[in-house]
Amino acid sequence: MRRLLRDSGHLIRPAAVLLAGLVLFLIVRTALVPKAFGQYGHYRPGALQLIRQHPVAYAGHDQCAMCHDDEAKLKATGKHAGVNCEACHGPLAQHASDPMANVPKLPEVANLCRRCHEKDAAKPKSFPQVVTAEHSGGMLCTECHKPHNPHL
Amino acid sequence: MIPGVDGFMYPNETELQWSLLIVLYPYITGLVAGAFILASLERVFKVEAVRPTYRLALLTALAFLLVAPLPLQLHLGHPERSFEMYLTPHASSAMAMFGFVYLWYLTVVLLLEVWLEFRADIVYMAQTTTGFTRLIYRALTLGSQNVSPEARRIDEKVGYVITVIGIPSAFLLHSYVGFIFGSIKANPWWSTPLMPIVFLFSAMVSGIAAVLLLYVGSMKAKKLRIDMRCLDTIAKYLFYVFLVDFSLEMLDLIHRTYEADESFRSLDFMVHTRLWGSHVLLQICAGTLGPLAILASTQLWKFSEARRRVLYVTACCLTEVGIFAMRWNVVIGGQLFSKSFLGYTTYKVAFAAREGLLPAIGLMILPFVIFVVLIKLLPPWTAHESA
Amino acid sequence: MDLSRRDLFKIGGKLLVLASAGATLEQIVGAEPAPDAYKMADHWWGMIIDIEECIGCGNCVRACSKENQVADGYFRTWVERYVIEEEGKQPQVESPKGAIEGFPPLLREDVKSFFVPKLCNHCADSPCVQVCPVGATFRSPDGVVLVDKTYCLGCRYCVQACPYGCRFLDPRTDTVDKCTLCYHRITQGLTTACCENCPTGARQLVDFKNPKDPVHEFLRKNKVQVLKPYMATEAKVFYKNLDGAVR
Fold first, then answer.
1. How close is the nearest chain C Cα to the Cα of B32, in Å?
2. Which chains touch A (3 or more CB pairs under 8 A)?
3. Nearest residue to B7 via CA among B212, B266, B361
4. In a domain, B122, yes or no
5. Chain A residues inside the 8 Å CB shell of C180
6. Does position B226 have pLDDT exceeding 60, yes or no?
7. Which residue among A11, A33, A52 closes a domain?
8. Domain check: are A135 and A85 in the same one?
């Protein structure tokens, strides 16, 4: 028995090195694993907070209506009732929080109306669409159609 | 129209995510597994003839294993966070579990086995060298200078056990890489239960061929005699393993063609166009049929020693090209077609970028550099190598 | 008891000191955080899309891009246009820059054609979450698949595992990015940017745990499909009127 120990004693050394490595790893791990990791699942719960903090760019219909009551009322009676203001006017949350500081530019009409209303065979048949080149003879859409209540 | 894209691809698919470096990674780990399995032939299966390459194979495996994580590090968006795989490994992720398989293989199998095998030489060097070299060897002894015959017998026994554990570990090491691809149901080019097996056998082929080439190269460099019995035996095993590998790949091909599922038309078109050169010409013809024909000829007919050497070296070089092409076809091929099966993209290898050709070449040279350092530190040829 | 003015001052002074000490202490220790009005357990998010209503205007793509500052050339959501000429032949599909500027008009009336908006399906059994090696991508308790950008390694395994092509590597952060279902909006009672700006209501955010949500009637009354149902990812984006040719 003692001879066996003497002859295999050197094997303790790599075993000790491995064990030391394992212990070191466990210590490092305890220090470095993010707090509360695994609380809801295999991830850092702080990520949920981080993502929720992203600033909002589109304020939404109701926010616009708070100040722009007239336009909202006009729009509500027409065909564009279901279209969000910002769909044409762009993201306006910044404008809503500080109207004087962030004055939005009015949208460019030419391309804007075309994106929805240019005739395309893939669009549903019931959707109002025209071949704009033939329809207006070069005139801007807003010459005849009021965007907030476009039906003639 | 996006340059290089034919047909329709989902808008985020047009750019390849896994590049040349990810081709390199299974190639390198394959060499490791293959070299180790050749070494185990001698140790466990008592194939005496390949004994001259035993130590060489171990050092080959170690040199390549040390380099294996490097292409991955270069590829990661945030390599500084790669340690997270050990801190919070996701048990359902094959990639995360592989980190531990790698660590296990490196420490408990390879390093331990190398240490046990070379211990007598290390102790001898620690006692006979001077200066800084002596410090290195003394550190490598891990403080024990017991090389009595009884201690060495124990080393033999333990080494044997480690090799026995090492064989399935080597299988696991590379099959796991195959599983990383084979378990992705979203990609029909990758998703097959055959993938781990195909990867394993192609790894064995490339590893055995690599050891043969390194053996011939080292013997020529040191102007020592090449043991032809050893070389013939290695070539024979290479031939048999290659036959299995070839059968498996043909099985995959035949199966796909026969079943002709939704993905088949798209994949077939891809192989005939974008992968024609790398798949049909390089992998199948030059890289598989060529070496198989050469090796078969050496089995069927007698050639002189010199001619056999040339044939073996040629066959092994072609094999390495073929197996590299196989990795390329799996990794890159799997990303060239759209998951809508309606389009294809192209892969242009950058040159001096982080994931470009230049770092790839560097990473392929590095294991050889490490290998040279290792054989200087732990010479694989002992007294029984006669000039 | 008889309180003199002096006594009052003394008592008042002590009370003042106590009050300010308390206030200061509260500042240092931190007041109790306001209870979160949003309870994750009360929600299970998804989306319903009506193919017959989509006009391919690309408003959703633009809105998403602006709301989330999506990297140029990459898409958290996009619209595809299908043109099916003959039965049995492969459909022709296009999505020019993800339809961020809409589509060039298709004038051929003799073919079957329609638009398909696509986004992350926020799968309940998501293959992308399954393969993430570190837990950087995950499914929140309220059913939204998200990416932790401070933890992601950028290995792109999840990009390979997603059957729908909705993930990509954001070159600005070298981490993976994808649709978050506007998590920062829906947790505040707003709807997603894409749904908010869809002019026809083709896309609608839904909450399966809300008994009053229109999704229950939608699923009951219509023939619905998810994309690639054979992948068994339990996708939560349901399409009405989805043609079988859609990939």
1. 23
2. B, C
3. B266
4. yes
5. 51
6. yes
7. A52
8. yes
Q: Do residue A43 and residue A95 come from a single domain?
A: no
Asked if residue A150 belongs to a domain, the reply is no
Instruction: Please name which of C128, C226, C116, C121 lies closest in space to residue C181, comparing C-alpha atoms.
Output: C121
Q: Which residues pair with A118 in a beta bridge?
A: A130
Cα-atom radius of gyration of chain A, to the nearest Å?
33
Ranking B57-61, B146-150, B164-168 by mean pLDDT, the lowest is B146-150
Per-residue DSSP letter, C224: E
**Segment C110-146, tens digit of pLDDT:** 999 999 999 999 999 999 999 999 999 999 999 999 9
| Whether the predicted pLDDT of C3 surpasses 70 | no
Among chain B residues, the shortest Cα distance to A21 is held by B107
* Mean pLDDT of the region B270-293: 94
| Domain boundaries, position B87 | 20-247+351-377
- Domain assignment of residue B369, yes or no: yes
On whether both A66 and A32 belong to a single domain, the answer is no
b/e per residue B161-191 (b: at least 16 CB within 10 A): ebbeebbebbbbbbbbbbbbbbbbbbbbbbe
Cβ atoms of residues B270 and B333 within 8 Å: yes
CB atoms A56 and C57 under 8 Å? no
Which residues of C, range 7-46, sit inside 8 Å of B by Cβ? none
Q: Are residues A87 and A17 in the same domain?
A: no
How far is it, in rounded angstroms, from Cα C129 to Cα B176?
Answer: 19
**Residue among A41, A54, A118 minimizing CB distance to C184:** A54
Q: In terms of domains, do A117 and A139 share one?
A: yes
Q: How far is A109 from chain C (nearest CA, A)?
A: 14
Residue B99: which pLDDT band, with cuts at 50, 70 and 90?
very high
Q: How far apart are CA B314 and CA B307, in angstroms?
A: 11
A35 and A81 both lie in a single domain: no
A29 to B150: CB separation less than 8 angstroms, yes or no: no
Tell whether A135 is covered by a domain: yes
**Distance, in angstroms, between A69 CA and closest chain B CA?**
40
| Judgement on whether residues A115 and A80 belong to the same structural domain of the protein | yes
Interface of B with C (CB under 8 A): 8-13, 15, 17-18, 72, 75-79, 81-82, 84-85, 87-90, 92-96, 99, 180, 183-187, 334-335, 338-342
Q: How many CB atoms lie within 10 A of CB B289?
A: 14
Count how many domains chain B has.
1
- Which residues, including other chains, have CB under 8 Å from residue C148's CB and lie 6 or more apart? A43, A44, A47, A50, C135, C136, C137, C138
Within-domain flag for B271? no
In a domain, B252, yes or no: no
A7 and B146: CB-CB below 8 Å?
A: yes
Report percent pLDDT > 90 for chain B: 84
* Coil, helix or strand at residue B350: coil
**Token duo for residue C87:** 């039965």
Evaluate whether residue A149 is within a structural domain: no
Q: How far apart are the first and last CA of chain A?
A: 105
Is residue A41 within 8 A of residue C139, CB to CB? The reply is yes
Residue A92 lies in a domain: yes
In angstroms, the CA C212 to CA C220 distance is: 14
Task: Please state whether beta strands C45-50 and C237-240 pair in parallel, antiparallel, or not at all (unpaired).
Answer: parallel
Which residue(s) pair with C139 in the sheet?
A: C145
What residues make up the domain containing A7? Answer: 2-52
CA distance linking residue A122 with residue C44, whole number of Å: 33
* Whole-prediction pTM: 0.90
Average pLDDT of the residues of chain B: 93
Same domain, A74 and A112: yes
Number of domains forming the structure of chain A? 2
CA distance B4 to B16: 12
Average pLDDT (B121-133) is: 90
Spell out the domains of chain C, with CATH numbers in brackets.
43-127+155-240 (3.30.70.20)
Task: Give the per-residue pLDDT at B179.
Answer: 96
DSSP code per residue over A69-93: HHHHHHHHTSTTTTS-HHHHH---H
Separation CA C179–CA A106 (nearest Å): 29
